[in-house]
Amino acid sequence: MSIGRRTRKVDISMPTNFEHRYHAGFDPVTGQYHGLPKQWQAIIGITTNRRGRPRPMVDPSCITPTEIAKIKTVVRGDILQPCH
What we know:
1 helix, kinase, 84 residues, two-stranded antiparallel ribbon, nucleotide-binding
């Protein structure tokens, strides 16, 4: 460990040979994605005939079930004696 020396800032170069191939988006009015390649549509389950709300990315039936804690009644103070 050297005292008084500054570490050199790492230079990160710009991307090379970058190609912008897709411009995708989501229309909240229709609930449809647009501009996705067919492979991506298959991953998220989009079909051209499908209408309505998109399916979730994760199947909720695969999530580990948990037990719901019992409801406890909390009583603060004595309800028989009015406060003065």
